[in-house]
Amino acid sequence: MNTPGQTATGPGLYIHVPVCASQCAYCAFFSMAPARELVAAWLAGIRRDLSELPDGFAPATVYIGGGTPTALEEEELARLFELLAGHVELGGAGEWSCEVNPGSLTSAKAELLRAAGVNRLSIGAQSFHPDTLRLLGRGHHADDTRASVELARQAGFRHIALDLIYGVPGVTAAMFAADLEAALALEPEHISCYCLEIEPGTPFSRRAAAGELAIDEAEQRRQFELSRRVLTAAGLGHYEISNFTLPGRECRHNGLYWSGGEYLGIGPAAHSHWRGKRWGHTEELPEWSRAFEETLEPAAKARETLVMGLRRIAGWNRREFRAATGFEINDLRGPEIARLAADGLLVETQESLRLADDALFISDTVFAELV
Asked: What fold, for 298-371?
């Protein structure tokens, strides 16, 4: 499916849509209620950001995330696409993704997205169990997810991704197995399974601090391994720690993040990596500004690229890594790699380096030794 070190071509364009009908209990992404005056101000800011893109900017991938892009009204979505078409060369965008919350997609919006050039939808199912959805603070029901997939297919979408969350307190392996089967029944081309984390500033973090909520890491690992068994048995290849896909349907935009590729982000809270610099925008509306800008020292950037690429199941081909960074892998962290390989956490050959299967769930521990 993908060879060690297979990299995505770029650049990419990310657009952050900071509106949500409500805040989920686990979510730390920047978003606000979709008040019309705020959306108008956001669109004005998007126009400003677009005007500052390099002349002739022609992304290979586009990703509209949030927030909930489909919480926008039809005329607001249409205005966004009008702005994009007026400032960006979109003809070469082979993959154009948009995030969707179940219950927010209508037939008209689905057709509008498809007509604009969007060819991949990422639908945030998260679970199909009513109790789990309620605990997560999701504002939809399982049937809303099914309806969104049906609307997308009717509009002509042939690449649908579903997101699931595992390791939720109180959710058993049997309940998560039912979520996996419900997702597979919808025949998506791609499924992402994200491990629940308690993020600072979220309702879950406040409940955890009060002793009302606790993560069971052993149960999370059981559910991670369950996802690998069930989804690969169903024909979806495990190509990145959290991602499974049919052959050829890997998310190319995310591949830029995992391979050290270049991308530009517009909107509040968006981040960019371009021409050796990295920067991010403030999390605020109606206006935002650049929160930081940094130029990484080459070896530090190479170590970061090494770690991000090891999120891919295939890991890094040494020759590809050298071409991408100018460094030999072992010149960066040779002793650490030897020790981690001896401990059974990395698989090292003359041609490649990857995480061992047993290290996938504890990848952050490994990465802390390499960055």
From this structure: Arc Repressor Mutant, subunit A (1.10.10)
Distance CA(279)–CA(288), nearest Å, equals: 13
CATH 3.20.20.70-classified regions of the chain:
12-257
What is the pLDDT at residue 6?
A: 40
DSSP summary character for residue 54: P
- Select from 308, 310, 281, 309 the least CA-distant residue to 293: 281
What three-state secondary structure class fits 355?
strand
CA distance 310 to 302: 12
Q: Which residues contact 289 (CB under 8 A, 6 or more apart)?
A: 281, 282
Q: Which residues make Cβ contacts (< 8 Å) with residue 246, sequence separation at least 6?
A: 189, 190, 235, 236, 237
141 and 101 Cβ atoms separated by less than 8 Å: no
pLDDT tens per residue across span 320-365? 999 999 999 999 999 999 999 999 999 999 999 999 999 999 999 9
- Residue span(s) of the chain under CATH 1.10.10.920 come to 298-371
37: three-class secondary structure by DSSP: helix
Give the 3-state secondary structure of residue 16.
strand
Q: To 10 degrees, the CA torsion angle through 71, 167, 194, 349?
A: 180
Low-confidence ranges of the chain (pLDDT < 70): 1-9
Q: Is the pTM of this model over 0.90?
A: yes
| Phi, psi (deg, nearest 5) at residue 172 | -80, 165
In this predicted structure, what is the pLDDT of residue 1? 34
To 5 degrees, how large is the angle CA 269–CA 161–CA 175?
Answer: 100
CA distances from 156 to 77, 101, 111, 207, 333 (A): 18, 18, 8, 42, 47
Sequence-separated (6 or more) residues with CB below 8 Å from residue 30: 16, 18, 67, 268, 269, 283
Q: In this predicted structure, what is the pLDDT of residue 9?
A: 58
**Domain 12-257, architecture per CATH:** Alpha-Beta Barrel (3.20)
Given phi > 0 = left and psi -120 to 50 = alpha, else beta, which region is 56? left
Distance in angstroms (rounded) separating the CA atoms of residues 65 and 140: 18
- Half-sphere exposure in the Cβ direction for 85 (13 Å, CA): 10
The per-residue pLDDT for 3 is 40
**Cβ pair 133, 127 in contact under 8 A:** yes
